[in-house]
Amino acid sequence: MTTARSGLVLDIVVDDRDVTVRLEVAHGETLALLGPNGAGKSTVLGAVAGLVAPTSGHVVLDGRDLTGVRPHRRHVALLAQDPLLFPHLSVLDNVAFAPRSTGAGRRASRSAARAHLREVGVEDLADRRPDRLSGGQAQRVAVARALAADPAVLLLDEPMAALDVDVVPALRQVLRRALADRTVLLVTHDPLDALLLADRVVVLERGRVVEDGATQEVLTRPRSAFAARIAGLNLVAGRWDGRAVVHGDAVLTGLPSSEPLPTGGAAVAVFSPAAVSVYPQPPSGSPRNALAAVVTDVEPLGDRVRVTTAVGSLTITAEVTPSAAADLELVPGAEVHLAVKAVEVAVHAARRP
Amino acid sequence: MTTARSGLVLDIVVDDRDVTVRLEVAHGETLALLGPNGAGKSTVLGAVAGLVAPTSGHVVLDGRDLTGVRPHRRHVALLAQDPLLFPHLSVLDNVAFAPRSTGAGRRASRSAARAHLREVGVEDLADRRPDRLSGGQAQRVAVARALAADPAVLLLDEPMAALDVDVVPALRQVLRRALADRTVLLVTHDPLDALLLADRVVVLERGRVVEDGATQEVLTRPRSAFAARIAGLNLVAGRWDGRAVVHGDAVLTGLPSSEPLPTGGAAVAVFSPAAVSVYPQPPSGSPRNALAAVVTDVEPLGDRVRVTTAVGSLTITAEVTPSAAADLELVPGAEVHLAVKAVEVAVHAARRP
Amino acid sequence: GSGGNAGKKVLVVFAAASLSSTFGDLEAEFEAAHPDVDVTVSFGGSADLATQIRAGAPADVFASADQETMASLGDLVVDPAPFATNTLQIVVPAGNPGGVRSIADLAEADLDVVVCAPEVPCGRATREVAAAAGVELRPDSEEQSVTDVLGKVAAGEADAGLVYVTDVPPASRDAVEVIAVPEAAAVVNTYPIAVVQGSPRADRAREFADLVRGEAGQRVLRDAGFGPP
Amino acid sequence: MPRWLYVPAVLGLLFVLLPLVAMVSRVEWGDLGTLVGSASARDALWLSLRTSGTSTLLCLLLGVPMAVVLARTRFPGQGVLRALVLLPLVVPPVVSGIALLATFGRRGVVGPTLEVLGLDIAFSTAAVVMAQTFVSLPFLVISVEGALRTAGERYEVVAATLGASPTTVFRRVTLPLVLPGLLAGAVLAFARALGEFGATVTFAGALQGSTTTLPTQIYLERFADPDAAVALSLVLVVVAVVVIGVARPGRGDT
Amino acid sequence: MPRWLYVPAVLGLLFVLLPLVAMVSRVEWGDLGTLVGSASARDALWLSLRTSGTSTLLCLLLGVPMAVVLARTRFPGQGVLRALVLLPLVVPPVVSGIALLATFGRRGVVGPTLEVLGLDIAFSTAAVVMAQTFVSLPFLVISVEGALRTAGERYEVVAATLGASPTTVFRRVTLPLVLPGLLAGAVLAFARALGEFGATVTFAGALQGSTTTLPTQIYLERFADPDAAVALSLVLVVVAVVVIGVARPGRGDT
Ligand SMILES: Nc1ncnc2c1ncn2[C@@H]1O[C@H](COP(=O)(O)OP(=O)(O)OP(=O)(O)O)[C@@H](O)[C@H]1O
Ligand SMILES: Nc1ncnc2c1ncn2[C@@H]1O[C@H](COP(=O)(O)OP(=O)(O)OP(=O)(O)O)[C@@H](O)[C@H]1O
Ligand SMILES: [Mg+2]
Ligand SMILES: [Mg+2]
Question: Which pLDDT belongs to residue A59?
Fold first, then answer.
């Protein structure tokens, strides 16, 4: 998946920011960049876009060394942390800027721009000047503008920041469509963005890569402190049968998130370890999901205990209080029954079938 | 609590933004402003700070009409959505600006500034120029600068935006200390901010107030569509006995969030309705909390069913799938047992004892 | 005069720019005769200087390049008296690239000719000379002053110009050639000098005017090409 | 804005306005028509407007690129180069005229070459335009460079990542963004060209209809016909007020 | 930056530099010392530096407040006022001198009042400073107003909500933010004052040591002693390059 020939290879040192990063993004792959403030995420994006000159190293896109190539010849669109809408153009013309600049006619550009504005839910603001927008509205327009550029590589720096919780799911769907089959570097603070949009996750800390792996791998079994704090989810990939995600013997009833989820299609069920109850006997009650499991590992995690279990070929973790772990005599090898409420299981269409 | 004499009374119309808002903040009270993008939250803050001139109406602070009063005489500090750090001053001098401007000596101002920087976790950046900060670092410095102003009224526009999930809890503690006994208007997209920091919540939609009430009231029984989507939590206020929150007969074991929580102190247990399992018999297993309850209301809510129950004098809601509701024959009057895992119950020190 | 003469009495002389070389010598001569006096000469266009005097400039002596300007000051000056004359002549760039021989040649269309504008005294004189010679001048430029005419010719920009030859400074003598104009004898321009009314140093001022009009002054002026008054 | 700033501001205003009022108060309004309406005055005004307009255009064509190069590139000796470009500001106009003569005059450095090409600049309207351009260019360069620096490169960078070529960025982002500064610079250049006199008379001479601009006319008549000079100055002032007033700087952002 | 912009930029540069080079090439380096070192030349240079410095200071004191009022307030007739303030740019310097005489001269509008107060301005060094201030003021006002408008009010607003009084905001935020524009304006004003000649001779005359500035000296000697004039111009140019080079615009934001 990550060959040096096709896709993006970045290997840079930026001395004055103490950033030394090497990473690869395969052609058509979406890579999520996670990490605390000041970790160097924006710096990496800047280096790809040609806005930050690395002290040494190189950026290679599809075999072409971008060192010294001017930004507009890189075919790399950047949605920066600051929306930076052109103040002299209307919202519509801001979004139409990229198509216009790359040769499309005024008409075609505008109607494309209008479609993009509709996607992010601000079509009614088309004629406004950017200085008359609220913070979140400006952010959405900036997203539309970046999407309209239709670039080979798309760099998104916290595209969901400043957005109200209400529009985030919808915008996530928009991005999901837009990012499919595009080479994308996505900076985010939300593991759900990573899960839904990214194939792989790279975690930066203090200017260094501390974790790099497939999204599900990193989110379920984080190795870095930062990833552990924000992730550690249970993910069950399988097929959606209309009510539940089926993976071999395991059947996980859940509620589909907003996107259309075709019956029989690939899906992933996501639930927090905290949502998993552990019983000595099969429970009867509202929880729709009851799974027989064998404890494989018990590990204290601050004020709670992380219980790792095997459900057939699946690994599912539960978080319980130390007193519960003691009462239930949870030790490796113990046979238990797990219960998860269906309303705590979010089901998403799997990114790649 | 909300008298017109003491505290902030705002009653404004801003025609060109279609904003018509009337709200009051009592002296020493923190009011959270929620609402979708473009609802008018920043506009309200701007009107209080004197940056947006209302078409009509007035802003009265502690009995003083602020109409026409110039910003620096309002004793109102604004942390805007954009950090707007002074580009010609170092980070330290940015934070020291307010104390210096209000008469403190250079030394005293700087050491106060350093303390504020420490609080937000960026003391090591004191000598940087703002243009050498990452997005989140700049946001934190802006928070420190606003706190250093020590104003009569503090206006915070999404103070947690752009921050990595890692620092949000710590910063929330900082704000919590800083906001106590101050008159504050806090714009946020996160109901947890509202819960932990605010006494009251006002929800704006399309430039109008659609909800206004005590935080717990709005978060537990939201009436507006927007509040319902972001809130609807179970809150149980009581005393912390070291392991659980005790409210009359009800005892809710939970995990304290990071702040120090004195045994015997007032506390509030917070858990999502989705985390509440419903059983016909008392369950045995990991869930630490089992509560006998009587169903008072069953109401479909999109793809799930909201079950309202009475546990003694408490109201606790559970969300289950329609099939679970049918299986368990949940109808008003039914006697059920609720189970909530302790790890799903976050316990916070109550804002006011 | 020069700096560092604190304690000396001063005398301020306003003189037409065309007098700059001669009055420099006369200043030195006067200061030699009056060691306690420091003479400051302010050169400029006569009309400019007159305007300044009218506006109260602290001049003690005024030497104008024409009588109209002096007359325009009326009571502001005391007893103006002529001290020099001059007449117009043709100047051409060194080597005479236009092949000019007489004033009649100046009517040729393919020659670049510059003269003074009719608004200024030398321009009026130029017209009178041309009329006397029966030549119709079609100048390519009408300049503000003799100095400007000379500048254009010296730079080789123009092929010929009409100037007072006394206005040709020594430094420019290599750059231009002079051709006499017999017809100009009829149009004589006279330089008057006067003490400025109300001068607190009227005695000293009169002494300077006397020096200019006297033996020594006339010698210096004659050497510079001026005619007698 | 601190209110005490009004005190020096009003003082400054008075300092500028009093002389203008004093000048205007000298105008004999009854004769104004005759004074201003003479053929020579009309010729001079028309020539002034034409040449100032042309030289402003030239300033834009040459000066905007110069400003962009100064603001957007870095090279050794840039500081010296900027200082050199701004020199016509400090050199007295008459000296500028001499320098132009030394370059483009018949015996100048490139003058003979131009003459061979059939371009005889001396005493032509073209010389007036060149003199005006020479003294006005720094005004435009300074204004535009300042505007470019203040606007910063951020928007240009965004535009480039959106795939716009440098030319497109220049046309659709850079120019519109600095438009207020550009307009201000053009107004300054036009005003300076309109008032230019010293370099013009020295380099181009003065002939009614082809090289005598309004300031030259004013200078000529200041003693011969002071009333006409004052009246013509008034015309210049009115033209300038109209031009500056029409092309006032755009609104600032708030 | 599109590369083709270099073509007009280099053309513009040549247009400005060639005349300067041509002028410099005329300097007879051997005689330079004598030409420049004369007592009168030294007096004139020293006077020029002193008066230009003083008038730049005056421009700052009067002009910065004027620029702030123009940029930060809105009132009817503001456009006309701005145009009026900029008029000294367009009025030929000699006319400015006449206007100043008509105001502050002995027979001027306020001259007699000043005389009663014991202030006799015309033809004194003070008059030189006033003439230079009059013609330089618009440069400073324009530069600073432009910088103020581009900087916008956002930071001032933030400072005000942090409790800073308008004076503190002005001192600690406004001034530092527009410092590059302010420096540029001061340099322009200084340069203009240094090159000023027409208004000075008219209003202040030309008395060695007290009112004969370097440009006046150059003007007087331009034909009488062209070598000296060119040499003195060179001195002016060097002074200007040093001043402009030292106070070059600050770095732009990226
Ligand atoms: N222009 C700059 N010059 C020098 N250092 C900078 C600059 N911008 C950021 N830095 C520093 O470089 C490091 C990496 O910054 P970067 O902006 O890449 O962080 P980030 O991961 O994007 O953080 P955030 O989540 O806060 O946006 C930080 O320590 C920051 O202080
Ligand atoms: N400067 C402005 N001029 C005119 N209208 C504006 C301006 N700023 C915002 N608006 C409009 O006013 C309305 C309220 O904007 P406001 O900035 O108060 O929203 P907000 O609630 O803060 O939104 P967000 O969560 O996106 O920051 C929006 O419709 C917006 O488009
Ligand atoms: Mg960043
Ligand atoms: Mg907002």
Answer: 92
Which residue ranges in chain B fall short of pLDDT 70?
1-5, 258-259, 285-286, 351-353
At residue D106, the pLDDT reads 82
Q: What is the CATH number of the domain that holds A152?
A: 3.40.50.300
> CB neighbours (10 Å) of residue D215?
27
Tell me whether residue B341 is in a domain. yes
pLDDT band at E104 (very low <50, low <70, confident <90, very high): confident
Identify the domain boundary among A179, A209, A230. Answer: A230
CB-based touch D/C (3+ pairs, under 8 A): yes
Close Cβ partners of E165 (under 8 Å, ≥ 6 residues apart) = B72, B101, D2
User: B123 with B139, same domain?
Assistant: yes
Closest Cα of chain D to E65: distance in Å?
5
In this prediction the ipTM stands at: 0.81
Chains touching chain E, criterion 3+ CB pairs below 8 Å: B, C, D
- Give B8 to chain E, closest Cα distance, Å: 16
Cβ–Cβ contacts within 10 Å for residue C71, how many? Answer: 13
The partner residue sitting opposite A286, judged by closest CB among B229, B279, B281, is B279
What kind and span of H or E run contains E199? helix E198-204
Which among A42, A158, A185, A189 is the best mutation to test ligand 1's pocket, defined by most ligand atoms within 8 Å of the CB?
A42
Q: Which of D83, D180, D192 is opposite residue E89, by nearest beta carbon?
A: D192
- What pLDDT does E252 receive? 36
Which run of H or E residues covers position E126?
helix E125-151
Q: Which domain holds residue B319?
A: 234-349
CB contact under 8 A, C119 and D224: yes
Contact C56 E123 (CB under 8 A): yes
**How many structural domains are present in chain D?**
1
Note the pLDDT of residue A55. Answer: 93
Evaluate whether residue A2 is within a structural domain.
no
| Integer Cα distance of B44 and B21 in angstroms | 8
**pLDDT of E251:** 38
Same domain, B168 and B288: no
| pLDDT tens digits, one per residue of B116-155 | 999 888 999 999 999 999 988 998 999 999 989 888 889 9
Tell me which chain D residue has its CA closest to the CA of residue C49: D223
Does the C-beta of A121 come closer than 6 Å to ligand 2? no
Residues B211 and B176 in one domain: yes
pTM score of the predicted model = 0.82
Q: Is residue E67 part of a domain?
A: yes
DSSP codes, B60-122: EETTEE-TT--GGGTTEEEE-SS----TTS-HHHHHHHHHHHTT--HHHHHHHHHHHHHHTT-
Q: Which pLDDT does position E42 carry in this prediction?
A: 86
Task: Spell out, as residue ranges, where chain A has pLDDT lower than 70.
Answer: 1-5, 258-259, 285-286, 351-353
Rounded Cα distance between E178 and E45, Å, is 31
User: What's the rounded Cα separation, in Å, for the pair A134 and B158?
Assistant: 13
Q: Measure the CA–CA gap between E144 and E123, rounded to whole angstroms.
A: 31
Which DSSP category does D249 fall into? P
What is the rounded distance in angstroms from the CA atom of residue D43 to the CA atom of residue D235? 13
Helix axes A135-148, A106-119, angle to 10 degrees: 130
The more confidently predicted of residues A260 and D126 is: D126
Nearest to E2 among D102, D170, D194 (CB): D170
Number of C-alpha atoms within 13 angstroms, CB side, residue A346? 16
Kindly list the distances between the CA atom of residue A272 and the CA atoms of A314, B165, C31, in Å, as whole numbers in the listed order: 15, 17, 107
pLDDT at C118: 84
Q: Which residue of A has its CA nearest to B306?
A: A343
**What CATH code is carried by the domain that includes residue E200?**
1.10.3720.10
Asked if residue A271 belongs to a domain, the reply is yes
**CA of residue C82 to ligand 3 center, whole Å:** 87
pLDDT of residue D250: 44
